[in-house]
Amino acid sequence: MMHRMLKRLKDIPLAAVAADIHCLASSHGTRSALRTVGRGVAGSVFDRKDMQVLVKRLDAIQPISAPRRLRVEELDARALPALAELNRARCDTRADHRFARNLERRYHGFTGHENGRLAGYYWWLDAQADGHAHLDRLGIELGAADVYGFDFFLAESHRGEGRAVELLYHVETRLRERGYERLWGYVSAANTPARWLYSLRGYEVARTLRLRPGSLR
Asked: What pLDDT score does 12 carry?
């Protein structure tokens, strides 16, 4: 486990790590920033938490009744500058490196926009991609009609009034239109709002695993 964590740290540019710590310190104070970093390291190495593996059949997509606020687009290299701006705002410039690697590995994604501004993103992959460490850890074997969704984020300024539900609806619909039949994912059992969101969208719990959250980053 320590070896994997060190390898992940090695893959992240040190300048990005320093920039994120400085951003957290500027926004929340040095002590708070150090506590955040400490919790992240401890969670990667020591803590184990229940993680629920989720699956949803895409032939049963519930319609949404809330007003449509988001415009959804395919995520490709042209989206990276806007994603980098969003990452800077949330003190997570380390994600810039991860997103570029995602595209290199033939992962796919969607971006959600509201009033001309990037509101969030959703990454996914199918069996044609270059694999993903999550799949082995979660015990997911993708078939030809399966998709694994991960790294779903919606900016705080765009949360509420059903936007997360709407973004998931658009993702599910787009994937079904491409011929996929099942969408896999995971959620922390302790994350009650996210569990409620996925339950509302009809995701079922396939199994619960005891894992270190850091192993799924």
From this structure: 55
DSSP label at 59? T
Contact status, residue 111 vs residue 72, Cβ threshold 8 Å: yes
Angstrom CA distances, 44 to 3, 160, 215, stand at 11, 30, 6
Tell me the pLDDT band of 80, cut-offs 50, 70 and 90. Answer: very high
* CA angle centred on 150, ends 117 and 11, rounded to 5°: 90
Residue 40 placed within a domain: no
Residue 141 lies in a domain: yes
- Let me know if residue 194 belongs to a domain: yes
Alpha helices for 46-131 (secondary structure H): 80-89, 94-104
CB 215 within 8 A of CB 51: no
What SS3 state is found at 163?
helix
- Cα–Cα distances in Å, from 4 out to 8, 16, 64, 95? 6, 19, 41, 18
More confidently predicted of 26 and 53: 53
The angle formed by the CA atoms of residues 46, 49 and 50, to the nearest 5 degrees, is 155
Any idea what the CATH number is for the domain that residue 59 is in? Answer: 3.40.630.30
Confidence band, pLDDT 50/70/90 cuts, at residue 2 = very low
Q: Which amino acid is at 117?
A: R
